[in-house]
Each structure stands twice: as structure tokens, then as C-alpha cells.
Design a protein that fits this description.
Three copies of one chain form a homotrimer.
Chain A (H helix, E strand, L loop, with lengths): L2 E2 L2 H14 L2 E5 L5 H10 L3 E3 L4 H10 L2 E5 L5 H16 L4 E4 L7 H10 L6 E4 L1 H7 L15 H14 L3 E4 L4 E4 L4 E4 L12 H13 L5 H28 L4 H14 L2 H7 L3
Parallel strand pairs in A: 1-9, 2-3, 2-4, 4-5, 5-6, 6-7
Antiparallel strand pairs in A: 7-8, 8-9
């Protein structure tokens, strides 16, 4: 049985991130670099988008955590990513894999499979991506999932065990699992699907949050807390946009505002359990 | 004589796009990737920005339509684009060329000229770009046009005939022509020129719309309908921004809201003819 | 002693930019391309993001000014930038260096040091970057400064003399110095630090402003005027966002609105001296 993430746990990790201002090294796709940086800044995190081969290797050891997102993967970037992952591991820094559109496209799928051997701290994906990485014949539609998160939970657990990682499969319900224990987050809003890069920036936020964890159990709670914080901010932004009869453009703006304004009392009041 | 696009035609293609949610493979410039993805999502289209050589070839055959935009063309991207275009053609998928700043800069101009042999379904450009592609000594100022669309209509017609394509030359008036028949769209607002990537995202929307067409005549109506939808959303967004004494930042946000909120009644009421 | 920039001087350069609509060739990092283009458009400047080797060389000679920003520097981009700088110099066009995260990362630091031999018209950086370029063992945190601008003023002066350039070191107070004379701008708002790319787009605006200068003294005034214009727009945007209990998302939107709406009377009323 998946266990609801508590408000106390979420608030604890939210406070840690606010107190430490993690420096997250984002190696991400070229559609969402700006949005990811702004989402992290709003959430009290310091983003850095270092891409060059040698610099990425140096910086991955300096940063608090590393994000690898394969949304627009190309050869040079893949090489730099591999070096950065190795460097983060040597330095004992957590790293998060976002396997955008894995299962749809061959090059990135193979690359992500290879990276699963590098002990990612967390793999954060949509249901179709997680199903594909777990070896099931799932296929999304571009970067969009064609499955619900419930359908991918068993695959997420198996993938977590096989790759000795934490898998966060996100959708209407988010499940965060290490294969044995599973946390669930039921917050969120469909408008999050109408803005590009929300999943990608959530993965970057997960990297920030797990940088404050001291062991795998904490990493699972931290990853789930990032999902909850992002989903709650999404609810607040959606409520404001819909009250004003506005749409995805305004929602995206309010999402940044809500990430910045979040506090413990709001988390306490909003979290579903 | 150019014929006004009717509201019924526009509504028909708008409904088709809403019903089918086309998957548009965007190979575009790195200034507008995020904005293009958000504009497509707002308009009910599913964007995918696949760039890597082998993946682009695979994906162009899967997607509903392909967009080629040369705004920040580089060698590796040009090679991947060529493969994607060939793949789209083999799969019978429509593709749209946006020749950003053709005529100003030599590398992209030569590349665009080459692509004209690959039977683009539509070429969507500003007047200076269309004049340049048609072989006239026009020159824009960077990505901006220094000509009105009326000045480019004759060139657009000639280009359409020579390249056996549809040319959409957009400005205060948009003309969509196959060289024999010409449709015109008179909607729009000057604030559209104050936000980067509006033309680029219109080209992506044209790709989505032509994916719902079953022959060349329908493709012309579909392309014109995309121009009308985008221009009407621009009018709505401009009206809201100006009423509130706001500027291009707010306008861009409202443009996404307006694309999402559009419906048949609004198209009916707004379209000029 | 640093001298306050006067409102008359600021208005003079603001008017020149509005009258001439400079065409700024931006070779910048892939996090901020869209934001930079929109900030320039809002400020009445025409942006062009030309990246390809041969095109960058051609375009740097056509444009009014060139911006080099090393935020996501990679080998191919570095080569194109070197050609563009040489071309701008041959054509007598001003160019601005934004040494993002110099001192933190080795590859870009070496590249920026090399470019200091190419007579940049202005170097615009945060205090940590300027300290690092001046050879002091300063180190920022990713792209963020860990020093105040006062701490970097002496280094800025030394760097200006050694590289025969103008150095603009920006923070709570902005200092613009050629090593002998120093101008200061005390406008601005902390929310500017909460949106990615504000410093980067300020550097692009500095390039636009210095394109209207006829000698080094004017270039210093023009660079300072760009800093003042940007900082005043930041104050206006922050005031609006805070009055409405909004955050960095809304602030970024209002910043573009404020850049577009700025006029002489507002500059007159807002400038601190």
C-alpha cells in the first residue's frame, strides 16, 4: 500500500531547501532551460546550466546535485552528461534522471538504459517513460504520457529494485517508490499539463530536495516533498487563473509566484491525505 | 483578387485541430523553442522538439507534421533537418518551412533554397523573406521584415508556382497563395511584432493545421485558418493588455490564454471580411 | 569618487536608442535567448541571435553592436564568437562582454581572458565575475555573485585600465568605470535577482546603448544609462508585483511592460542621485 506523504515531512524538506539554497547543476533540454531556472529560483534554489564537457565535469562535483534530462539529447551533450554523472558520483553528490520520451525514441532510450547502471538517486518520469524504462512495451506520444500513474506503479517498483534507485512516477497521483516502500502525493492540477517543462522543472526541484537528504529513506521523503510542493503550487496557480477566466499563459506566471510564496501553513492546509 | 477566408472555413479547421490534437515535430531555432511549445499546447496541439539526427528521422515519420525553422541554423541541425524532411516526405507527412532571415544571411538562404526542391507543403515567411526566396533582392533587418505583405504578393505567387508549394506571407494582411488562388486574412495586431517568436509559433501552428487537410486546396484553407486563429488570439490579447495599460510582457501571456480560450463564436465575431 | 548618473544624460541615451532602434547581434547562452530578445524588443531594440560560424562573422559587421555572453559556452560557439568579435572590430562596431560565471569554471574563464585582448567596448559583470577577471581569487556560486559591487570597484578600475575598456559592475549599486572616471547608478530592486537572465539582458541593452555613443566618454554614459533604464524598469515592475502580493513570475512580465512604457518623465522622477 502506498502511504500518503505527511504535511510535517513535506514542511521539513521545504524548510531544509529554503535554509540551504541548494545549487543544482541542470543538464537539460533546450526547450525548458529558462523555465527550469526560473522555477528553481522561485523555489529558493540556485540553478546553474553548465554544458561544456570539461566544465560540466568540474561543476557536477561542486554543485549540491545534478539533473540529467534527455529531452533534446545530442551526441556532444550525452558525452558531457556521462562525465558529469561520473563526477557527481565520485564526489558523493546525488543525481536525478529525467528520461523524457524514453520508449518513443531509440537514441535517448539506449542512453537512459545505460545511465541506469550509474545509480541515479531518483528517476522521475511520466508513466509511459517509466513503463518503457522498466522494459514494458509502453510508448508515449512525444513527451506526453498515454498511461496513468496507477498503471505504471508495478513497473516503477520493479525498476527501483533493479536499478537500486528511487522512482518517482508522476501524474494525477504521484508515486515515489524504492520498490519496498511507496509514498503517494495526490495534489496537482490538469493545467500543469498545458505548460511545457513542468515535469522537467519538477525533476530539477527533486534534485534540489534530495540534496538535503542524508540517506535513501530521506531521499525518498525529499523527492516526494518536492512533488508535493510543486503540485500544491500548481493548485494555487490554477485556482487563481480559473477564478479570473485566464488560461495556461497566466497559469505559468502564477505557478512561479506560488512556488515563491509557499509556506508551511499553506502546505499544511493543502496537502491531501 | 485575393479572397477573404470565411469564418465557417476557419471554424472547420479549428475544430479538426481540437479534435485530432496533431503531434507537431518542431525543428526550430533556439530562441523560440519554449514559446513555440507553449503556443502549440495552448492551441490544443502536441509539440515535440526532437533534434538528434537519427531521432529526428524516426520522429518525422511518426508525427502529424514537421516544422523546419532556420532561425539559428547550424551544420549539425541542417543535416538532421534534411533527414527529417526526407523522412516526412517518405511517410507522406506535411512539412512547413519558416525561412527566418532568408536573404539577410548566406548560409541559411542557401539551405532554404535547397529545401524548396523538397516540396514543402507550406512556406510561411514575412515579406522580406518571401521576396528573398523568390529571388528578388529584398533584405530584411535581422529577423524583421522591411516590406509590407502587399509588396511581396506577386513574389509569393511566383514562388508558390515555381516550388509547387503554398506560400503564406504574413504581415498586417496575411496572404496565402498557391499561385492561382489567394486567400487573405486581415486580423492581427501590431503588438504581435513586439514579442519574439510569434511568427515562428504561427509557422508551427500552420504545420498542425495542414496535418488535418486531405488535399492541396484544403491545405491552403488550413494554413489560412491557422493564420486567422493566431491573429484573432493576438487581437484579443492586445485588447486586454491595452485596456489595462500593459505592454508586451502581459500581451505574450494573454496571447497564450487567448489561444486556449478561442471558440467558434469568437472566430465568427472577430474575423474580418 | 563615483559620480551619480544624471537624469538628463540617461534621457539623452534613452531617446537615442528609441530613435535609432539599434540592431543588436546577441551571441548568448541558451538559457536566456528568448528572454533577452523580448527584453530588447520591449526596450525598443531589434535583437538578432545569429550563431552559425560564417553567418556570425557576416552579421557582426552589419549589426549596430555585438553581445558576447559565455553562460553556456561550448567549443563551436567559442569559435563563432571569436570570428564575430574580429568582424565587429574590423567594422568599427562596439561589442560587449558578459563573463557569466568567470572565475568559477576554467574553460570560460580562459576564453574571457583571451577576449580581454580584443578591446571590448564594455565588460558587464557581477562583482564576483569582475574580481575574477581582474585576477583576484574571487569565486561566485554558479552564476550568482557572492560579493557586493563596492568590494569589486577597485578591481573594476584596474581591469578597465589594463584592458583599455569600460567595466560595468552591477549589483545593489552599479558602477561604470574606465579606471579614471566612475559613474554610479543606485536604482534597482532585489526581485531582479529572482529572475534568470536579468543580468544577461542588461548586457544586451548596454550593447544597444553604446551603439549610440561616438567616443569612449559617451560609451561610459551610454552604458550607465542602460543600467539606469533597466534598474528603473525593475523598480516599477517590483512595485506593481508587490502591491498585488505577486512574485517573480509576475515581476518578469511587468519588467517587460515597464521597459516598453518607460519615458523621460519617469526616468526624471525615479533616478536616484
Amino acid at each position: 500500500m502506498a502511504q500518503f506523504l505527511s504535511s510535517q515531512t513535506t514542511i521539513r524538506y521545504w524548510q531544509r531547501v529554503r535554509a540551504t539554497v541548494p545549487l543544482v547543476h541542470c543538464m537539460t533540454n533546450n526547450v525548458v532551460t529558462n523555465w527550469t531556472a526560473n522555477a528553481l529560483l522561485a523555489a529558493g534554489v540556485s540553478p546553474a546550466m553548465v554544458v561544456e564537457d570539461s566544465e560540466a565535469e568540474v561543476f557536477a562535483a561542486i554543485a549540491s546535485a545534478l539533473l540529467i534530462n534527455v529531452g533534446t539529447l545530442q551526441t556532444a551533450q550525452a558525452q558531457a552528461m556521462a562525465k558529469a554523472v561520473a563526477s557527481a558520483r565520485r564526489a558523493g553528490k546525488p543525481w536525478v534522471l529525467d528520461p523524457v520520451a524514453a520508449g518513443v525514441l531509440p537514441y535517448r532510450t539506449a542512453f537512459c538504459r545505460g545511465l541506469l547502471n550509474e545509480m541515479p538517486t531518483v528517476v522521475r518520469g511520466n508513466p509511459s517513460e517509466i513503463l518503457a524504462l522498466a522494459g514494458e512495451a509502453a510508448q508515449g506520444r512525444g513527451a506526453d504520457s498515454t498511461h496513468g500513474s496507477d498503471e505504471a506503479l508495478a513497473a516503477a517498483k520493479r525498476l527501483a529494485v533493479e536499478a537500486k534507485t528511487i522512482v518517482a512516477v508522476t501524474g494525477a497521483t504521484d508515486y515515489i517508490t524504492d520498490g519496498e516502500r511507496t509514498l503517494r502525493v495526490d495534489n496537482g492540477h490538469p493545467l500543469l499539463q498545458r505548460v511545457t517543462g513542468t515535469g522537467c522543472s519538477l525533476s530539477a526541484l527533486v534534485a534540489a530536495y534530495v540534496s538535503t537528504a542524508s540517506d535513501k529513506n530521506e531521499a525518498m521523503e525529499a523527492a516526494a516533498s518536492a512533488c508535493a510542493v510543486f503540485a500544491i503550487a500548481g493548485e494555487i496557480a490554477a485556482q487563481k487563473a480559473l477564478e479570473r477566466s485566464e488560461g495556461p499563459g497566466s497559469f505559468a506566471v502564477y505557478l512561479l509566484d506560488a512556488l515563491a510564496a509557499l509556506d508551511g501553513a499553506t502546505i499544511e492546509r493543502r496537502i491531501r491525505s
